[in-house]
């Protein structure tokens, strides 16, 4: 007989399989007495029988997958032997599968490399999972984690195997996602089901399907003009989501940029740094727009463009410019205040406050600036001008901007004043006093009058002339005696002066300039004629003919010191030249007669004796005090006679003649005093004038 049992695998030891006594319908005690034995066909003894109860139990762990593998049905066969009588029973134990094994993948992770331009529908097999269970407990299905690009296709084979495949449903983009991480789950049909997972890493292989991309569409930078060479303007940042050479970027300036811009800026092809390599001048350009391109090294090359706007910030690097719109370098000295001398235009190439310009001139100059409107000034005279005081001005116009620090420019305007005839000539002296010795040579320079005119050129060309101004003789015309050089003012004598005729001469010298109309001035010239000893004394008494002697008669009884006669002489000169002295130079008897030194009186000094001669010849010399002195001699013949009446008559005559002597002496004294006084006054005035 054959008995069949069914038990699940993996029962614990002692687990109940079946009651053999009951199933055979045999008493348990009989079985025990019959020496019941259990024999197995396998090497392992998986079951045992309790002879006391007749129960078959599990004695070892039973693994259906180890015993039967993938067979859908698994049996263990036992033989039950009984003695007295010998009987054999076949027992078949079916090992039922339980879901004790999950599906197992060959590895925990699998990697795939897929070209990003792979066509849609492409299939990529995945090694299947293995489940040693059978029936519904074996692998039933696969599940793919949610993703955007792949679907799961399970391919069933005729042997019941299930092979999973990844199917590309949506194009890959390595730049969007370079790696895809999926989870494939294998699940069996057990209850509860068991599963296992495998991680699928998909690396998307790059294709040059992306152009470089700048991190911004345009860049902006601000630089100060005159930035040093090498100054960093901006660092560009372009990225290419491709990899390898496809993502290797080179920067360059676009061909759209002008040659001038290329001389100012340079770019590093590796780093994308744009630096200054030329001069930045705000006044030439306030903004630069640089076109830049970025190229990858893929094949074919892909490129991208962007613009860099560089704003130049102005610095105060330009001094103001002063432009003369109108300027006259000459100006009449009689120009009225407010006369426009120059029109000045100022400009500063800087901007803002740095381009605002203020102008000024020195307040010490007779000029001022008037602001007409923005950037234009007029230079005006502020006061009256005087060329004779200042003939030439260097007017410095200072233009300063409002920068920090400010810059300035100084422009010098040379202004020459044109002379007008506004100054009359001025003599160096208000009057001149000249001492001229009489008998001066003809043409000798008596005095040089000098005048100055602060005007210039024709207005300062002076001409001198003599005007009649009167003198000692109101009717005296000075031009008769004098002449003056018209240009140098030298006064010369036309004739020698004779003190005895003219002692003083006064006249005006007029000077006139060459202006139109001419201006004039005068000075007074006093000419004092200085006497020279040019006249010898003239004997007026006693009168005698030329080369003859004067005879005088005296009585032999004359009593000394009786006056015999008086020699009277007059000198036409004056002063010392007219001071006369009388000298007895020769006589028959020098001891008998004497001559008074100053009066010229001839007297007898002793009584006559019989031994004395009857006739005496006296030589009387009249000498003046000039240098050298001049003299005149008179010869007196004194006769000693008894003719008293004749002698007396002679004495009376002499007395009569002598009556005129006091008036002559008074005349000489008064003349001398007047001349000396005038001379002293003139000399004193000349000394005061010199001081």
Automatic annotation (TrEMBL):
Q: Which InterPro entries match?
A: Cadherin-like_dom, Cadherin-like_sf, Cadherin_CS, Cadherin_N, Protocadherin/Cadherin-CA
> An example Gene Ontology cellular component term from the record?
plasma membrane
One GO BP annotation is: homophilic cell adhesion via plasma membrane adhesion molecules
Compartments (UniProt record) = Cell membrane
Is the keyword Signal assigned to this protein?
A: yes
Segments traversing the membrane: 664-688
Alphabetically sorted, this entry's keywords are: Calcium, Cell adhesion, Cell membrane, Glycoprotein, Membrane, Repeat, Signal, Transmembrane, Transmembrane helix
**Topological relation to the membrane, as annotated:** Single-pass type I membrane protein
Designated name of the protein? Protocadherin gamma-C3
Q: Where does this protein come from, organism-wise?
A: Certhia familiaris
């Amino acid at each position: 007989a054959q008995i069949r049992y069914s038990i699940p695998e993996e029962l614990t030891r002692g687990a109940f399989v079946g009651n053999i006594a009951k199933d055979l319908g045999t008493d348990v005690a009989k079985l025990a007495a019959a020496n019941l034995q259990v024999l197995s066909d396998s090497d392992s003894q998986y079951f045992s029988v309790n002879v006391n109860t007749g129960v078959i139990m599990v004695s070892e762990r039973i693994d259906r997958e180890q015993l039967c593998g993938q067979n859908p049905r698994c049996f263990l066969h036992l033989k039950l032997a009984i003695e007295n009588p010998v009987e054999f029973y076949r027992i078949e134990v079916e090992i039922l599968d339980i879901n004790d094994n999950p599906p197992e993948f060959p590895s925990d992770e699998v990697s795939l490399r897929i070209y990003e331009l792979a066509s849609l529908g492409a299939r990529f097999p995945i090694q299947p999972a293995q489940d040693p269970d059978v029936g519904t407990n074996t692998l039933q299905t696969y599940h793919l984690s949610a993703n955007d690009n792949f679907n799961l296709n399970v391919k069933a084979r005729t042997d019941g195997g299930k092979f999973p495949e990844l199917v590309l449903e949506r194009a890959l983009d390595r730049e969007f996602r370079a790696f895809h991480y999926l989870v494939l789950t294998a699940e069996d049909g057990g209850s509860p089901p068991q599963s296992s997972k495998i991680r699928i890493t998909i690396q998307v292989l790059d294709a040059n399907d992306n152009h470089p991309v700048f991190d911004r569409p345009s860049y902006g930078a601000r630089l100060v003009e005159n930035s040093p060479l090498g100054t960093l303007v901006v660092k560009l940042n372009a990225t290419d989501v491709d990899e390898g050479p496809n993502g290797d970027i080179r920067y360059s300036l676009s061909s759209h940029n002008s040659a001038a811009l290329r001389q100012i800026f340079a770019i590093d092809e590796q780093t994308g740094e744009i630096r200054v390599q030329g001069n930045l001048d705000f006044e030439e350009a306030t903004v630069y727009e640089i076109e830049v391109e970025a190229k990858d090294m893929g094949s074919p090359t892909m490129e991208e463009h962007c613009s860099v706007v560089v704003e130049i910030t102005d610095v105060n690097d330009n001094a103001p410019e002063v432009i003369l719109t109108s300027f006259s370098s000459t100006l009449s000295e009689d120009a009225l205040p407010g006369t426009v001398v120059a029109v000045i235009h100022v400009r500063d190439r800087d901007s803002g406050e740095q381009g605002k310009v203020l102008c000024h001139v020195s307040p010490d100059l007779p000029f001022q600036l008037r602001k007409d409107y923005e950037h234009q000034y007029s230079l005006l005279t502020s006061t009256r001008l005087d060329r004779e005081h200042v003939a030439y001005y260097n007017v410095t116009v200072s233009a300063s901007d409002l920068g920090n620090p400010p810059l300035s420019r100084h422009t010098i305007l040379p202004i020459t004043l044109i002379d007008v005839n506004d100054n009359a000539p001025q003599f160096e002296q208000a009057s001149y006093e000249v001492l001229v010795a009489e008998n001066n040579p003809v043409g000798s320079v008596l005095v040089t009058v000098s005048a100055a005119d602060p005007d210039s050129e024709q207005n300062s060309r002076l001409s001198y002339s003599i005007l009649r101004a009167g003198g000692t003789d109101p009717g005296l015309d000075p031009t008769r005696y004098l002449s003056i050089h018209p240009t140098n003012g030298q006064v010369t004598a036309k004739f020698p002066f004779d003190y005895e005729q003219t002692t003083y001469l006064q006249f005006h010298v007029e000077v006139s300039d060459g202006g139109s109309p001419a201006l004039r001035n005068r000075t007074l010239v006093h000419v004092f004629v200085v006497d020279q000893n040019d006249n010898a004394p003239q004997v007026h008494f006693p009168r005698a003919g030329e080369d003859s002697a004067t005879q005088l008669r005296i009585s032999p009884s004359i009593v000394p010191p009786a006056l015999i006669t008086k020699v009277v002489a007059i000198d036409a000169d004056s002063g010392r030249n007219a001071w006369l002295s009388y000298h007895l130079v020769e006589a028959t008897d020098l001891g008998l007669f004497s001559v008074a030194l100053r009066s010229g009186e001839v007297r007898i000094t002793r009584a006559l004796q019989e031994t004395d001669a009857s006739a005496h010849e006296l030589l009387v010399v009249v000498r003046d005090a000039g240098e050298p002195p001049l003299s005149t001699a008179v010869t007196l013949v004194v006769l000693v006679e008894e003719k008293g009446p004749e002698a007396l008559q002679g004495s009376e005559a002499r007395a009569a003649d002598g009556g005129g002597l006091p008036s002559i002496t008074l005349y000489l004294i008064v003349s001398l005093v007047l001349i000396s006084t005038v001379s002293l006054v003139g000399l004193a005035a000349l000394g005061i004038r010199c001081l």
